[in-house]
Amino acid sequence: MLEQLQNSFGKIVKTLRGEGKITESNIRDRMRDVRRALLEADVNYKVVKDFIKTTEEKAIGVKITKSLSPGQVIVKIINDELTALLGKQKYNLKTASTPPTIILLTGLQGCGKTTFAAKLANHLKKQNHKPLLVPVDIYRPAAVQQLEILGKQIDTDVYSEKKKVLKRIKGAVSFARENNHDTIIVDTAGRLHIDDKMMKELVSIKKTFSPDNTFFVADGLTGQDAVNTAKVFDEQINFDGIVLTKMDSDARGGAALSVVKATGKPIAFIGIGEKPEDLEIFHPDRIANRILG
Amino acid sequence: FGKFFTVDETILDDIEAALLSADIGVDLTEELIKKLKLVKKSESTRLNDILKDELKTLIKPKQHEVQNVKPRVILMVGVNGTGKTTSIGKLSSLFTKQGKNVLIAAADTFRAAAYDQLKIWSVRSGVEFLGNPQGKDPAAVAFDAARSAVAKNKDVLIIDTAGRLHTKSNLMQELAKMKKVIKKVIPEAPHDVWLVLDSTIGQNSILQAQEFTKSVGVTGLILTKLDGTAKGGVVLAIHKKLNIPIYYLGVGEQLDDMVEFDSEKFINALLD
Ligand SMILES: Nc1nc2c(ncn2[C@@H]2O[C@H](COP(=O)(O)OP(=O)(O)OP(=O)(O)O)[C@@H](O)[C@H]2O)c(=O)[nH]1
Ligand SMILES: Nc1nc2c(ncn2[C@@H]2O[C@H](COP(=O)(O)OP(=O)(O)OP(=O)(O)O)[C@@H](O)[C@H]2O)c(=O)[nH]1
Ligand SMILES: [Mg+2]
Ligand SMILES: [Mg+2]
What we know:
The complex is a heterodimer. Chain A is an alpha/beta fold. Helices cover about 50% and strands about 15% of the residues of chain A. Chain A has helices at about 1-10, 25-40, 45-60, 70-85, 115-125, 145-155, 165-180, 195-210, 225-235, 255-265, 285-290, and strands at about 20, 65, 100-105, 130-135, 185, 215-220, 240-245, 265-270, 280. In chain A, α1 (about 1-10) crosses α4 (about 70-85) and α4 (about 70-85) crosses α11. Chain B is of the alpha/beta class. The longest helix of chain B has 17 residues, at about 170-185. The two termini of chain B are about 35 Å apart. The interface of A and B includes residues 219 and 225 of A. The complex binds guanosine-5'-triphosphate (GTP) (2 copies) and magnesium ion (2 copies).
């Protein structure tokens, strides 16, 4: 789509010879194309509105010089704006002053939390950490078993005590200290942001253990609803970073922009497959390019 | 000239926002807004009803299923995490309540604890279960399941498959192979290939429906997680493009949380 944009912008300003300014009238139509592209990429409707407005303001009055075509100038403004929005802060994993560092994974059903838990443990192992996986999804059939199997696959300890959620985490912290695990990764059950009981559980985990890093795991294919869910999770548990999964798909990933804009939180990791090694550090420019198609 | 006689722009903007937020998509939203722009100002109080009528034309009323084969073989497919395994649990209970003798098979040999997950559902719904805890060949499980369904005179066989992205051609071929293998036992099977879609997913669901249809032929849709705030409006575009019926809606994580699709109720929910 970037190519199409360049060509269509190029057309508008073909009528301006040599040096010329981008005017309101010639940019408005092109912005409609950008709006369409962003909506088709699943960027939230309100986020698109704001983005278009801001970008239009930046583009109007920009001088065209002989070194760059008008199309290139406008595309660069859009790309830069998108990249800036996506990548304002880089995420740095916080460590606890007294181990273990606690990492809490949260998110809706089926977004990839359990798989990410294994990926994160694998990632930490490669950096000479000794992570401990802590499954606390005591609701979904075979959820604990799932993480136990994944733990075995990456030769990482899994702490699972037949207790309720808070007791499990408490036991895991003690176990970690006794066995020199410097990090524990807590994998929670998928839950709806409108499920009061389950959101209360998350709030109590946060209050009781003050995790050093709380991640909101989101499905990279999410549509307009991404803003609703991210906002509520952020309001209730003030997460530190976002993990966007299933980006090995052909989804444009507009949810990335929606969630970052709605919460102001950075994207920390990207999931690019089902295996433990399928984890990527977030690159804002790559995602920006992808959203624009 | 017509501006003084047609509906207010601001009302149309609100409707456009509602449609887009429901994941109806840009194209369909534009089409609908174009139609609404022609509505006379005198009719503007009826605007919502006119919109609902327009949406209703996009989707057939209550969808019905074919019921007269035995065993009826249903293959459940879809991308990762949409709710296939859970939906099988719910459907097996639903069909059992209808007096059917059901067998469910765990042909997902990839995902950690997929076998265990479906087995627990079979216990919950009281249906027979087949799988291979050490299995590595999904087609082999499907084959055994088809054989068993015939031998045990089952009414319905539902086969669970691993979640897979439609962009992974080797995995899509694996599904096509599973179909061929099932046909060796029951030539007309699978009678149904149901694509499970997650209502929180956006426009990518359209690509999913197109690709799965190309690879294995989709005969029905199941839309899950409608107990959340997502509206699943993308199914309208899918239904419009591919004419695939929508059979069931997942509205929760428990055994009874599955309802038959009702287009009237669905469209009303889309707009509130
Ligand atoms: N292709 C792809 N699949 C993924 C990715 N991350 C997770 N998955 C798959 O998505 C499905 C769901 O993953 P889970 O890890 O069980 O998701 P979850 O959030 O723990 O699910 P619940 O605990 O049920 O809420 C599985 O089939 C995973 O293999 C990814 O980055 N790419
Ligand atoms: N709230 C809600 N959650 C659902 C619904 N259907 C499924 N889930 C949840 O979504 C998550 C994924 O469900 P699964 O049945 O494991 O999904 P799947 O398609 O089999 O996943 P893969 O086999 O990994 O592709 C689980 O946490 C389910 O409890 C639904 O209708 N509503
Ligand atoms: Mg999980
Ligand atoms: Mg499954």
